[in-house]
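Justification of computing resources. Each target in the renewal requires a structure prediction run like the one illustrated here; the chain below, 712 residues long, is used simply to show the kind of job we budget for.
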Amino acid sequence: MSENVIHLFKDAEPTTTLTAVPSPAAPAPAVVLPVEQVKPLVPLWVRSGRAVRTAVTHEGTRTAGRLVVRHGMYVVGGTRIVSRRAWDGRTAARYERMLRAAEAVGNYEAAGDWEERLHRYRADRHRRRMDLLTAPERIVKGAAVGAGGGVGTLLVIGIALAVANKNPADVITPLMALVDLIRLLVVITTVVWGPLVAAAPWVALLGVWAVGRRRGAAPQWALPVSARGQDAGAPITPSVVVTALRDLGVAPLRAAIKDMGDAGAAMLGPIRIAGCGVEVDVTLPSGVSTNEVQGRRRKLAENLARHEHEVFITIPQAARTVRLWIADSGALDEPIGPSPLVTDDTLTADYAKGKAPWGQDLRGDAATLSLYQRHLLITGLSNQGKTAALRALALWLALDRSVEFRLADLKGAGDWAMFDGLATILIQGPTDDHVVEATEMLEGGVSEMERRLQAPPGTVFPPLVLLVDEAQVAFMCPVVDADKRPYGGSKATSRYFMAARKIHNQGRAVNVTLWQGTQDPTDQNLPKLVREGAHTRASLALGTESQARMALGDKAVDGGAAPNLLRPGLDKGTLVVASDGITIAAGQASITVRTHYIDTETAGQITARARAMRDGVTTLHVIEHGEDHDPLADIASVIADAPRVLTQDVLKRLATLNEDAYGSWTNSDLKRVLDAEGAGAYKSDGRMVVGRDRVARALTNRGTDGSASAAE
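Resulting structure tokens:
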């Protein structure tokens, strides 16, 4: 039966189902899939494109392509090199190129020498060409004489042979031998000439390929992976420098090097060892500016098989010249030596004339910084060595006994604890209360500055350094005082902001300076007016160019400063500095300094030496503003363990202790209190001082009751 048979079955359940059973001869029913499982048909052109793309991008295809390009360029480059050599050997092109190269770099002595050689070459060439006019006549005469002489010689030999053999036929035997030799040579040439002609092009091709391979005529990307990295860290030679400049992408520079007969070597000065690298001056040809080379620092570094941070370009005094400093590969990743503060126990500081030994520049030379009447700002990302760099300067300056420190550490991790007993104020902590105290410390500095500004002309004041680490905490503080004035912020109502601005505006004239350390600068945590008020601006690694501009200013960044290119973690402790207090190469707006690291324990030893140089300093950890005070007890408190203290220093310490009570005191106020208590000041070495024993005796005679300060 060819028709389908349908059987009906009734299920026991109420529902009835119909099942179609195909006959054995019928085809199997089609399987119907859900619509979502049916894959759409991909067009042929799409599948073909994918197949072509897969084939082209396959690693095997790319390897084969590099192989073909590499060996093809060996042939092309070798042909060019051989042709150039042949042309130079047959013409005056080499002399003319050397002459132009000497003129391009201004070496007129060498230019004159090459011009003389060119004249001699042309004279010799003219003589040779004139000789060629008479050469055919000389050749014919020479050939006739030679042929006649040769035949005569053979006849003489034949006659001698005929006489010896008594055979007249031997007279022509030598001539016939010569004829047989000529016929043999013709046969050999006829046999060999065909293969030689067929093999000659391949031999020539192999020759130019070998020349191209030896000179590395293939592009870098076509070389094998092992060969591409084999020059990394290679010694810097004149040919390496010239090749790097040639491939820099500056068309006039490439053309000038191509036209120079010495392949550009005349542009280079001597390659000198400079620190952990080498230094070379490059005199650029006419039409190439120094900023064109400066703007391609990364490409130049890669051409020299170095990282970008291992190549620096400066502008020396000579016109149209750039100075390249190229580090030894990996040398900048090695730590520098210890600070002179650690190695020399006898080292002292001079605020006005000395310079702090901060570290080394990239050439390995000592980098020293003058701190005289300069406000300081150091910024960077967190955990890059900001506090260590700032503390290294403070440790050196602490060795000048005339310098007073008032210090606020708004991190409070103990990084500045060694200044206890050295700084007159030491605030440590990250809370809003600590920000309030730091702000009042700055406002006390403003009061001291204003007092000094009102002093008689010619008065000399000792240096006062107000130092705030983690200053961004102060700028971001939300606390508002009783008069509704915020402590933080960047507006004219901000107490911290205004105190910093006042010190920036007038403080340096009376030796009051502000040092600040902050991290991750923004307009909110480091206002524009405050950062631009610093004379010395330094930055560790930063994340973006905009942050670099906040840290160092537009001029420094436009001049090449790039702390955002420093490697976080790897370049820890490395600073980009813009300041007139440090030696910077001519034409540069900044210098990169690798700072000496002084750990906390060693810093404590240095501050111990600094404390030994002083008569004794009472460090306040909380600024008191109480109404009750006992002047004599407070005088005893600020004198501490010193046998005697200058009256000016007593007044200064009293103002620090209680600005409200003693900020306006003068010498007459101090004299009035001391004379009334029988502890008057006296002269020592020609200067008025207050004696500790006299003050202590006066306190003993009348008791110390009622002194809020003495009770502490």
